[in-house]
Amino acid sequence: MANVLGNEHDLNFKETELCLGLPGGVGGGCGGGNEVDSSPKTTGKRGFSETVDLKLNLQAKETGMDLNKNLGNGSKEKPVSAKDPAKPPAKAQVVGWPPVRSYRKNVMASNKSIGEESEKASSAAFVKVSMDGAPYLRKVDLKMYKSYQELSDALAMMFSSFTMGNYGSQGMIDFMNESKLMDLLNSSDYVPSYEDKDGDWMLVGDVPWQMFVDSCKRLRIMKGSEAIGLAPRAMEKCKSRA
Amino acid sequence: MSEDDERQQSPPSDLEFVSNKARNCNATGSGSGHPEFQSAYPDQVLENVLENVLHFLTSKRDRNAASLVCKSWYRVEALTRSELFIGNCYAVSPARATARFTRVRALQLKGKPRFADFNLMPPDWGAHFNPWALAMAKAYPWLEKVHLKRMTVTDDDLATLAELLLGFKELVLVCCDGFGTSGLAIFVNKCRQLKVLDLIESEVSDDETDWISCFPEGESQLESLIFDCVECHINFEALERLVANSPSLKKLRLNRYVSIGQLYRLMIRAPQLTHLGTGSFSPSEIAGQGDQEPDYVNAFAACKSLVCLSGFREIIPDYLPAIYPVCANLTSLNFSYANITAEQLKPIISKCHKLQVFWVLDSICDEGLQAVAATCKELRELRVFPVDPREDGDGPVSEVGLQAISEGCRKLQSILYFCQRMTNAAVIAMSKNCPDLVVFRLCIMGRHRADPVTGEPMDDGFGAIVMNCKKLTRLAVSGLLTDKAFDYIGQHGKLVRTLSVAFAGDSDMGLKYVLEGCPQLQKLEIRDSPFGDAALRSGLHHYYNMRFLWMSSCRLTPNGCQEIARAMPRLVVEVIRSADEEEMDDAVEILYMYRSLEGPRTDLPKFVTIL
């Protein structure tokens, strides 16, 4: 499994869960062994990834084995969790736990968003979301979310077997850093792309959130390696806007 | 509301040795024990009599037993079986099934194992309905009913059913996927005798086809239309026409794209409904402030036969009082998508004296459960789902709610309870107060969580359940559990057929206790528990009696699984990797094994290996 950041597997839990495919934004929350983060504007914690349902088995297996080791010693204590007191408290979720069907989880997630907004937006911005390899389309209302992070959470819940790259502190992929971008796209993780008003396919995260909501017509979640073709154009557009 | 079929499927008779009784049968199949006696019409009379008698046998267990008596009975039973139930679609091939049973009118098939619902299995694992659809269309042109659970059904399959089966009446799809609104459109259009279309918790892709309009014009025989899981807009005018043209319609469950105003219009056209799913239960945005609201209370009052209410997908609690008129008659109420508080629940539940089935969100808190316990003395089934399904979320319900339910609802038979904290004391109390429990599923959402009051594992609580609830057939455990819990289950859980285990146990002994102690065990699903090859070996005597065994993230090795595969040729032993993972030589990520007459299946995806 492509592991962009670090290749050690005996690192703490947090290291494993966070270091899947990211172009930047190595937060203070991570342990050592990270690549040097060159761009100043992409520092910041990776808060959102802690609540994303992460890639299948690597994490679950590690959890299983770690915990089993503890229990095998006859210890009745709750096993050491991934938490390090210095790190953010939220735990990443184990795949398929608690055992609530995805359908129900999705409904609750979208209901929560509806409930939190006391008045609905004047018009919804429904876009279709497809994911390569998934047998069905979903639809999301972009107006229900306030940031890329929220959208990412929701998509992660809907298609919970994929991970998305991290967004920096300003919520945008760092397009100026080509090598980070290339790393992301070379990984086997999924990246979201979208079709904009001009009919071009762009990487999600290249423009401020509101601009994205206004211009996004469709979303497609594709493998990083397939999205490579998008990057140069995306960066050009980005540069021309800057 | 879906629930796993609890009935046992006894092993296909091909697997069983023809019994001694059968061997003594006369070679002509007369079934008498006296080979020297020559009857004038041996076969004909007997077979006619048998045929007439066996028509009355409906239970599949009885039929399986009858088919084992001797070859003659086997043959006649096969001719007279009209409802075919196959608990694992890979246990037998369509060809074999259609060859043995030639006059089937109703087919029930189950596919993927339950843990696939929780994303533990990569997609595209299998359970395709397609080969069955084709075989049925050829072999059973008069097939009327198909009931599928956890299978992948394509639009083409739906078309096959509709086009080739002229008298097709009933389609029920539970937790299925692979089809979309365009498949539905073809299906409802071609199925002229359709009475039942129930889509329950299935993934239906939105192909932007207006399938509701595709029902044939004119009077329809529709009795049940359930589509609350279909996540796309529907043509309301077409739906209204359909409901108006369906005088026999008894069950209608709308999806969340139907507003409360639209619900009203449907209800006044169908006051004969017995089962209603209300859709969103909130107004559409179009309804202005000044518009006069319809008389919802009246609409509900007119539905005098309503006994089952669900929906409330985007509930505005202000509208809840509309359902007061039906509360007294309700036997089933599903609020499991309605994020309501205890205060909002109380006025409703206090009227529901006849309630037997109640599904709800934990947003009602322990206080809400206390209100349920105070009124619902006839409660048989309770399910409490989490609003916030995370390990470290808030815990609005706890041992307090469980204790209250156990004291108030003594007739409880089935419970599914998600919580963040639970004590042994409360579980023990339930085991004593509710002796009729058949299904006990407790999900303490924090993994390995001990009793918060005593610090002890949850062994004693679950132990009490298996000891005191003598009718228990289905059990799901959670919380901090040592091997002791499994020792209890093995010693006392003699009727347990389905067992779900997650993050529990200390060693191989745990699994051994269960495999050696539970003779009725049919379905065993385990994840993230320290059971290894030695434990697996201890079940060799029993695996042919089981529908399946699932073990994921345990301590199995390929060698251990290989050993089982070699020892048991009629068992299919699948080792499943997560889709992207490289092949790991030393650990088995997912083991899924099941008895089968067919050997390895031919539709394997690349991430599955059969040993």
Descriptive overview:
The complex is a heterodimer of chains A (242) and B (611). Chain A has 7 helices and 5 strands; from the N terminus they run H-H-H-E-E-H-H-E-E-H-E-H. Mean pLDDT of chain A is 59; it is low at 1-90, 117-122 and 162-171. Chain A starts with 12 loop residues before the first helix and ends with a helix. Chain A is an alpha+beta fold and 242 residues long. Chain A has a 5-stranded mixed β-sheet. In chain A, strand 1 (126-131) and strand 2 form a beta hairpin. In chain B, strand 11 (308-310), helix 12 and strand 12 form a beta-alpha-beta unit. Chain B is globular, with a radius of gyration of 26 Å. In chain B, helix 6 (130-139) runs parallel beside helix 7 and helix 17 (459-468) runs parallel beside helix 18. Chain B is of the alpha/beta class and 611 residues long. In chain B, the strands form 2 sheets. Chain B has a 21-stranded mixed β-sheet, covered by helices on one side. Chain B has a two-stranded parallel sheet with strand order 5-7. At the A-B interface, helix 2 and helix 3 of A face strand 7 of B.
Order of helices and strands of chain A: HHHEEHHEEHEH
- H/I helix tally of chain A: 7
End-to-end separation of chain B in angstroms reads 37 Å
Mass-distribution shape of chain B: globular
For the residues shown, what is the average pLDDT of chain A?
A: 59
User: Radius of gyration of chain A, Cα only, in angstroms?
Assistant: 18 Å
**Distance between the amino and carboxyl termini of chain A:** 35 Å
Helix content of chain A: 25-40%
SSE-based structural type of chain A? alpha+beta
- Largest interface (CB < 8 Å): A-B, 52 and 67 residues
Query: Beta-strand percentage of chain A?
Result: 5-15%
Low-confidence stretches of chain B: 1-37
The tally of beta strands of chain A, per DSSP, is 5
